[in-house]
Design brief:
By secondary structure, the chain is mostly helical. It has one domain. Helix content is 88%, strand content 0%. The protein is built from eight helices and no strands. Helix 5 packs parallel to helix 8. It is rod-shaped, with a radius of gyration of 27 Å.
């Protein structure tokens, strides 16, 4: 197998580099989502809503500040805007609007952080098969060129074609190990996005 990788030439080197980048992103995002799942967001939401209804906004801000994750960060942005608007003497409607706008703005950054480096996986998933096919085409051209040369056996040409096809297989394998985790991460990101939308609506209802 190692010989095939070596014989695959520059295209296999590119695929190996792709796989390294892809693996690094998969590990990074897996750790991030595992960290997100450690936070009991349901309990956090309940505590924050209770503190807001009890008019203990400072304690709610402290709680969100000490809790990691996108949900607590979005809540924190809303709480800070809520407190600032109230201190400025705004009425309830204006305060709710200010809090919602702050949460809307920050939720874009929160989701962007959740989807960090997703583009690497999509690039690898799309490019790896093409690189593999290019390696195969180049290998086939070289093999058929050798076939027309004197003193080259059919067995040697067949071996060259076999090696060339390895790059296609390699490209597909690298793409699979990028696309499958990407789709899983997207589903997790969508769940976070949905929860953010729910918490924004719940928070505005609590302060109105």
């Amino acid at each position: 197998m190692l010989n095939h990788l070596v014989d695959g030439g520059i295209m296999m080197v590119i695929l190996v580099i792709f796989s390294i980048f892809s693996l690094a992103v998969v590990i990074d995002r897996f750790r991030a989502f595992r960290q997100y799942r450690k936070v009991d967001n349901r309990a956090l939401r309940a505590q924050v809503m209770r503190l807001v209804r009890e008019d203990d906004v400072d304690e709610a801000i402290l709680l969100c500040h000490e809790t990691p994750g996108p949900i607590s960060s979005v809540l924190l942005s809303g709480l800070l805007a809520y407190r600032k608007s109230r201190m400025g003497g705004s009425d309830t409607a204006a305060t709710a609007i200010a809090a919602k706008e702050a949460m809307d703005d920050f939720s874009v950054h929160a989701i962007s952080a959740v989807e960090k480096r997703f583009g690497v996986l999509t690039t690898v998933g799309n490019a790896a098969p093409l690189v593999g096919m290019l390696g195969t085409v180049v290998g086939m051209i070289a093999s058929f060129a050798a076939l027309s040369a004197d003193g080259v056996s059919n067995e040697e040409v067949a071996a060259g074609i076999s090696i060339a096809l390895v790059t296609t297989a390699g490209g597909l394998v690298v793409a699979l190990f990028a696309v499958i985790p990407y789709n899983w991460f997207v589903s997790l990101s969508d769940a976070v996005d949905l929860e953010i939308e729910e918490i924004k609506a719940q928070f505005v209802d609590a302060i109105v």
